[in-house]
């Protein structure tokens, strides 16, 4: 299409229990425009309900960028009201990433700037390629982050380091992102490494995996006493699943459990 914007800006691949979502707008370094956010939303709805999928990986097309931010060209002419709606759309989609009951791994294969860093932050686990770079350059464009960066970044790396990144607009290499806890691991082949982790998670009890994510994501927003009761409820629920019976039986029989 003129401008290179196809209808398919999100590619979906399902492989051995893992759903891989690839943001695919290579001509714009995978920048997120409205269309791409809408497609990401649809793809998440699909993978959330697909019983073959236990873990989701989000990555970017090519080896230069994960996502270079929200689409600056699309934002340039927005009215304040349109910009607010755009931020709310991004928030809705990223909150889906965060709260979907399947684990979501970001395989950050290059630039993760602005909305790209915010997308990685909404994922449960972040692995980075050695050449990846992270940052929130919004203040240099005369705007604030709009897809959760002012909240998720300081919650993850702490207020001081978060504000330093947010206020300077500077970018940091993968190694530094690892040092400050923004990414879990820096690896040469990031998608392969994310797939290995997904495979490991796929061998565990799907019920327990889903419960664990829910307990962490929702529990972190509760006070400690309530969160611990919530945890006890989740623990109890596991004993109503056949998977607990199989897991513990397999332990006694000294064999690998089969949760299929
Ligand atoms: N939006 C739209 N297009 C973008 C883009 C973005 N965020 N980032 C890159 N592109 C486009 C470029 O315009 C360029 O297109 P043309 O070839 O048509 O000119 C193409 O992608 C390749 O980019 P560059 O030529 O700039 O590549 P580079 O290697 O010289 O630089 C880069 C790479 C440092 C990532 C640079 O592209 C860059 O700084 N991009 C913008 C990063 C940014 O500011 N992101 C934050 C956006 S605001 C935001 O995200 C708000 C929010 O929270 C909601």
From TrEMBL:
Single Gene Ontology MF annotation: 3-hydroxyacyl-CoA dehydratase activity
GO terms classed as biological process: fatty acid beta-oxidation
Catalytic activity: a short-chain (3S)-3-hydroxyacyl-CoA = a short-chain (2E)-enoyl-CoA + H2O
Keywords, ordered alphabetically: Lyase
Pfam families associated with the record: ECH_1 (PF00378)
Family: Belongs to the enoyl-CoA hydratase/isomerase family.
Name of the molecule in the record: short-chain-enoyl-CoA hydratase
The organism's taxonomic lineage, starting at the top: Bacteria, Bacillati, Bacillota, Clostridia, Eubacteriales
């Amino acid at each position: 299409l003129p401008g290179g914007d196809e209808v398919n800006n999100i590619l979906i691949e399902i492989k051995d229990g893992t759903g891989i979502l690839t943001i695919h707008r290579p001509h714009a370094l995978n920048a997120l425009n409205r269309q791409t956010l809408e497609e990401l939303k649809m793809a998440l709805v699909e993978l959330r309900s697909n019983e073959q999928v236990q873990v989701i990986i989000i990555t970017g097309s090519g080896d230069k960028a994960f996502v270079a931010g929200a689409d600056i060209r699309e934002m340039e002419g927005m009215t304040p009201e349109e910009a607010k709606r755009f931020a709310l759309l991004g928030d809705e989609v990223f909150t889906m990433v965060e709260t979907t009951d399947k684990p979501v791994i970001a395989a950050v294969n290059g630039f993760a700037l602005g909305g790209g860093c915010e997308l990685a932050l909404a994922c449960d686990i972040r692995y980075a390629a050695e050449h990846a770079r992270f940052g929130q350059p919004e203040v240099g464009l005369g705007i604030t982050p709009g897809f959760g960066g002012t909240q998720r970044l300081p919650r993850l790396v702490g207020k001081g380091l978060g504000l330093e990144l947010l206020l300077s607009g500077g970018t940091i290499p993968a190694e530094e992102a690892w040092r400050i806890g923004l990414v879990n691991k820096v690896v040469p082949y990031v998608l392969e490494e994310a797939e290995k982790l997904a495979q490991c998670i796929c061998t565990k009890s799907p019920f327990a995996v889903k419960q664990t994510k829910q307990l962490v994501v929702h529990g972190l927003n509760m006070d400690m006493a309530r969160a611990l009761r919530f945890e006890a409820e989740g623990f109890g629920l596991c004993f109503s699943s056949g998977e607990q019976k199989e897991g513990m039986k397999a332990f006694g029989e000294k064999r690998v459990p089969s949760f299929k």
